[in-house]
């Protein structure tokens, strides 16, 4: 057999890449990856390279040793043969701690001992970027982590919605301010200016809701002249902690909502109002169509121009019915994206003391939101009996305590402007007590107490010693009434009208 034939034979018959089947490898950032390459022949040298690295290589082993001279720096201390002896023709490469920058087409070239010829296979490695969500409270600082290959010269942080402006650009050892979006001015820096071990994490200071968005960390691959996406971070900014506002009925309240940008639209809503809103301003005007009637003529922007990103809302003459979780959504002009914060408003009921002489008529004041259909007046000590119930335009006598029969009525049965004040005629000593005015909130099917009135009844000029007799009698009568009520309460409990407003909340 001639030498040529022998050589041909070995080439044709004996050179077989065992790992031929697996040529696409996918991995997540941070994984250790094995790039398989195996032959059935004895190997004297192996060279791993990647098309885009030009002259430099990934790993070279020849003449019985690793040859570091032309290794690309990004692979330093990160690659090794699975089997240093390359026993059984195994020249698979271990690549540690991969990033998306390692993606590419790798070539495994081997020198067959027998024929002294080179053979190769290619393997595609695809490393997916890290995608993570980071929550942060507004006002805090946050670190956006990103690890890049070592020795890079250019790092770019951007946010998906900012188009051409960037968040942070670092090049040749310097921060480059040219295309930085103004909202990040003086607020961002690298965690490590040296970018040691490829740490290109970004510190973002004093975050606002406007910083919410999808951040991307890229490094420039010199060899390929392209930017490589390493990390995608979804930054979620929670509204600041101190968003609990308390107020008393009758006050005007400002719900503060501010961003640092120009706003084109603002929508204030409250979770329990369903489709309806509190206030909507867009396309340069107030949009009343879906405003909940209880806010009609009661709300306004603090600044109609929304100058300096101020979308704060003034809510006038609040009642407990206004309590709830408000959401302020603003549309940022530049990015056309919506941002929001929530604010909890808690309005305490009015508590007033009203003195009255017996025999007089008295008005118990109560102002409810507009357009309500159900109003109930109760007195704390009467348990299940009420003072007055008005439902869907009608007085409902069923559960009225007998002592109020024909003595009470709404001041205005139309309840104009939410006036649900009660007139109590010919006051007696027995009427003393704590009266509560409630309305039913249709949307939430919940009952809110609007005002609490302590009625103090002066026995009047007939007083003197008779006064104390009257007081004693009064107390006895009150005791009897209370016992009766307890009795009713216990007996009635099972047959309570389920539509009835409860007398206590
Ligand atoms: C490898 O992935 C590419 C796209 O990433 C695909 O077009 C190709 O068919 C895949 N090859 C194999 C052998 O799976
Ligand atoms: C590897 O990637 C290159 C470039 O994207 C492509 O041309 C080639 O077909 C891929 N090979 C495999 C085996 O998928
Ligand atoms: C954080 O930002 C707010 C306005 O967005 C500003 O009032 C405040 O002074 C800033 N705090 C710090 C520590 O820079
Ligand atoms: C807001 O009020 C709720 C209850 O009303 C309370 O649980 C919460 O801790 C308060 N939050 C702050 C930041 O004060
Ligand atoms: C606001 O109220 C809601 C419901 O009561 C509660 O879940 C939320 O934690 C409150 N927010 C604050 C800032 O207190
Ligand atoms: C109370 O009102 C009734 C009619 O509503 C009236 O007849 C009566 O004079 C009033 N009493 C007093 C003390 O004003
Ligand atoms: C007022 O009530 C007293 C008893 O409480 C009664 O004697 C008197 O007739 C009542 N007056 C009117 C105008 O109803």
Automatic annotation (TrEMBL):
It is found in: Cell membrane. One of its GO terms (biological process) is positive regulation of T cell proliferation. The keyword ATP-binding does not apply. Its main location: membrane. PROSITE patterns: IG_LIKE. Keywords: Cell membrane, Disulfide bond, Glycoprotein, Immunoglobulin domain, Membrane, Receptor, Signal, Transmembrane, Transmembrane helix. GO terms for cellular component: external side of plasma membrane. The keyword Cytoplasm does not apply. It is a single-pass type I membrane protein. Residues 10-124, 129-219, 240-344, 349-448 form the Ig-like domain. Pfam families: V-set. Residues 1-20 form the signal peptide. The chain crosses the membrane at residues 469-490. SUPFAM superfamilies: Immunoglobulin (SSF48726). PANTHER family: FIBRONECTIN TYPE-III DOMAIN-CONTAINING PROTEIN (PTHR25466:SF9), T-LYMPHOCYTE ACTIVATION ANTIGEN (PTHR25466). This is Ig-like domain-containing protein. The gene is LOC120437733.
């Amino acid at each position: 057999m001639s030498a040529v034939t022998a050589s041909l034979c070995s080439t044709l018959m004996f050179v077989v890449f065992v790992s031929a089947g697996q040529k696409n490898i996918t991995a997540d950032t941070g994984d250790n990856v094995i790039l398989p390459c195996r032959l059935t022949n004895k190997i004297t040298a192996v060279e791993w390279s990647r098309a885009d690295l030009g002259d430099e290589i990934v790993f070279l082993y020849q003449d019985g040793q690793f040859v570091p001279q032309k290794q690309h720096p990004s692979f330093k201390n990160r690659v090794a043969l699975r089997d240093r002896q390359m026993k059984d023709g195994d020249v698979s490469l271990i690549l540690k701690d991969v990033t998306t920058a390692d993606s590419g087409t790798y070539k495994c070239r081997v020198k067959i001992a027998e024929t002294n010829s080179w053979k190769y296979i290619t393997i595609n490695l695809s490393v997916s970027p890290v995608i993570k969500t980071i929550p942060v409270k507004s006002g805090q600082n946050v670190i956006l982590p990103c690890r890049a290959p070592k020795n890079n010269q250019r790092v770019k942080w951007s946010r998906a919605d900012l188009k051409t402006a960037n968040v942070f650009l670092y090049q040749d050892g310097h921060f480059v301010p040219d295309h930085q979006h103004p909202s990040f001015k003086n607020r961002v820096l690298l965690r490590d200016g040296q970018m040691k071990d490829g740490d290109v994490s970004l510190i973002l200071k004093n975050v606002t809701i406007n910083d919410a968005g999808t951040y991307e960390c890229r490094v420039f691959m010199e060899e390929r002249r392209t930017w490589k996406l390493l990390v995608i971070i979804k930054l979620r900014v929670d509204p600041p902690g101190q968003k609990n506002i308390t107020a008393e009925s009758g006050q005007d309240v400002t719900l503060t909502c501010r961003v640092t940008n120009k706003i084109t639209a603002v929508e204030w809503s409250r979770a329990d109002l369903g489709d309806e809103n509190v206030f909507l301003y867009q396309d340069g005007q107030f949009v009343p169509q879906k405003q909940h009637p209880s806010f009609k003529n009661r709300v306004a922007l603090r600044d109609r121009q929304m100058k300096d990103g101020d979308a704060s809302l003034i809510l006038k003459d609040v009642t407990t019915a206004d309590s709830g979780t408000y959401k302020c959504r603003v549309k940022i002009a530049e990015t056309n994206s919506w941002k929001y914060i929530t604010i909890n408003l808690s309005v305490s009921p009015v508590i007033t003391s009203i003195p009255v002489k017996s025999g007089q008529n008295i008005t118990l004041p109560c102002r409810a939101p507009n357009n309500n259909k159900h109003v109930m007046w109760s007195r704390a000590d009467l348990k299940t009996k009420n003072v007055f119930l008005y439902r869907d335009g009608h007085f409902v006598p069923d559960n009225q305590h007998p002592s109020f029969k024909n003595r009470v009525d709404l001041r205005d049965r139309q309840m104009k402007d939410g006036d649900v004040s009660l007139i109590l005629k010919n006051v007696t000593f027995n009427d003393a007590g704590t009266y509560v005015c409630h309305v039913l909130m249709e949307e939430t099917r919940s009952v809110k107490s609007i005002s609490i009135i302590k009625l103090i009844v002066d026995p009047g000029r007939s007083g003197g010693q008779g006064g104390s007799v009257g007081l004693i009698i009064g107390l006895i009568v009150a005791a009897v009434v209370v016992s009766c009520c307890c009795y009713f309460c216990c007996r009635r409990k099972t047959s309570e009208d389920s539509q009835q407003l409860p007398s206590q909340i």
